[in-house]
Amino acid sequence: MKGCVPDARFAGLWPKLADVKFHPTTLEERTAFAKLLPALLKAAPETTTPPASAEKLASSVGFRLEVWQGKQDTFWVLREKPERLRGAGAYVIRTGHATDDVVQVPHPWFDKGTEGIGVGVFSCGSRGQRPRVFMTATAHRYHGNPGETPEDPEHPADVAHNPDHLFQEVTDLVARSLSAPRVVQLHGFGTAKTDEGRREKSLVAVVSSGTREPTTWARQVTKRLVKFWGEGARLYPEGTQVLGGTQNAQGRLLQAYDCAHFLHLELSAQARKSLSTGERLATLGHVLFAPLED
Fold first, then answer.
1. Which fold has domain 15-289?
2. How far apart are CA 19 and CA 139, in angstroms?
3. If 222 and its partner were Cys, which of 157, 180, 207, 232 is the partner (CB 3.0–4.6 Å)?
4. pLDDT range class, residue 200, cuts 50, 70, 90
């Protein structure tokens, strides 16, 4: 959509890092969301008013349920209360007409620019191709433990690799509640990650289904991205052997659902910088969520 400007309130989903004190997901949070998410997803296509019990249920586990009314869309937003910022994630549901598609941003702050790209893809699609759900982490992936470093064996705040995080629970609930969800997870990479020979230095984007057997969707997206960015867009593992996301927690989870599809998209710094306008983001959204070809 030419000239699309996402709702400025999305920027508020990411708190100041110093204000977040990470805590693992609790049984109470899981129990509440197991009731809350399906109810919201069931109601969203038909109304802009959340179910009567939803706000109280969210509040009981330290979340706020906000209603954002915009020029074109009304969103239901589940975000942590300011006094209880603990990296539990933020979850946005589009009401009214939407596709069974999901945009995930697991590494804000670390994969720089993926926040804005995720919001743009979620916001700037054509009227008939706007995803139902947007999900993002709300803690830095390496700020789960005091003094944590990337070399540590465990990273509890890294939602893409912690299957016990609420982010994983919400992904599971979305897969159970939507008829045929397609989940796109956005990542970023630098040259150090792909320095495995001269050929890898030309990488612009890596598309993967999170497995070593590409899906029809992954092949279709790669084909379209080659037209968008050129031959630097590669399909894992056929076009490149790096950045395949095969250990991704959400990707592994969604493999258990015949109706669900997962796409792990790695973007170079060059690619992320190129996605600076609503028109470019809308095009990327079309590339990612175009109807599957037979």
1. Aminopeptidase (3.40.630)
2. 10
3. 207
4. low
